Amino acid sequence: MSNTANPDPEMLRQLLEPLLEDFTYWFNRSQKLFSSERIDFLQEQDQTKLLERVENALKEVAVAIALFKVTGHQVGVDMATMKPWHELLMECQAVGMRYYRNQAI
User: Residue 1 falls within a domain, yes or no?
Assistant: First the structure.
């Protein structure tokens, strides 16, 4: 049985580092899309709010990465923190898929 009070830094690094990189990558893609293109099926204010949420999530992920690195990979990120990021990514994915599908028509 592992001691959750003292997680293995290498295991945390192997699991958490790629996940945080993925969040950063996909939020950056969403930010680029929502800031450079007009999503015609969203109200302008809804697109602006979605972009703001993405930009806020990017900042949160950056803080998590910084804390993760500064502690020598000895702290994780609570699932309650990551769940909204995941939900936002799924929302962005749905908007992006619809946007690109509409562009192909």
Answer: no
